[in-house]
Structures are given as C-alpha cells and as structure tokens.
Amino acid sequence: MINITNSMAANKKKRNLLKWVCFLAYLLFLSYIVFYNRIERNEYRYNLVLFQEIGRYYYLGMNTGNWRLFIFNVIGNIVVFMPVGMFLPSLFSRCRNILFTTILSFEISLCVELVQLITRVGSFDVDDLLLNTLGGVCGIILYSIYRGIKHLFSNR
Known about the structure:
Layout: H1 2-35, E1 46-47, H2 52-64, H3 68-91, H4 98-119, E2 124-125, H5 126-154
Parallel strand pairs: 1-2
Helix pairs in contact: 1-3, 2-3, 3-4, 3-5, 4-5
C-alpha cells in the first residue's frame, strides 16, 4: 500500500513539473509574440478608446471583404491568452475561482500592455486588455469543463 501511495505522489510531482515547464514555455512563446518581430518606435502608441481598434478592423473587413486582420486581431488576442486561464487554475488551487482568474488575466494583460507602451514596442491598447481578459475567461471555462469531465469519468 505504501508503494502505491509513494508512486502516486511521484507521478503527481512529475505532472506538476511538466505543467510548470509547459507554462514557462508558453510564457516564452507569449513574450516572443508580444515583444519580438515588432518595430521599435520613437513615439508612444496607445489606444484608450474601447472598441476603437476592433471597430477599425471590423469596418476594414466590411469594406474590403478581407477579414484576415479582424480575425487575427480579435480571435488572436483571445486565443493567445486562453492558456493563462488554463494554466493558472491547474497550478494554483486559489485560481480555480473564475473571478480571481479573470482579475489575474486582466492584470497580466495590463502588465504586457504597459511594457509595450514603456518600451515602445507595439502599442498599449484597451481593446487588447478586453480581448486578452476574455481569453483568460475562456481558458478557465475550458479548464472547468475538463475537470468536470475528468471528475465524471473518475467516479465510474
């Protein structure tokens, strides 16, 4: 019985280590997307009007029929932050609260946007704050669905 318990504890440690490695790899990937391959500018670029950039990409799509920029901007900002909402509750039990994880997703996004503004790489955009936070919410919803399905099948 003790061997089974020790084996289960060792497996849990390995899974946690793997989660941390994947989370750190994700953070490196996010840093690459956000800060590299960007043009450094001399001026500060920012948008403080909610839905301004989303609207701009929407109208561009409506007028040209080319929706790639709209999809890349809107869907991309949501999808790129979904792992935040999945990793945080997986690594920290306190983050299994959707409100807490939503606030953390917003704070992480705010830090990213502020670093972009300060370093003048990219731009500070409130639309990105909204979309990134929405991505974190989508991530914790997916994580909760996964845990529910896992719990359902583990009781059988």
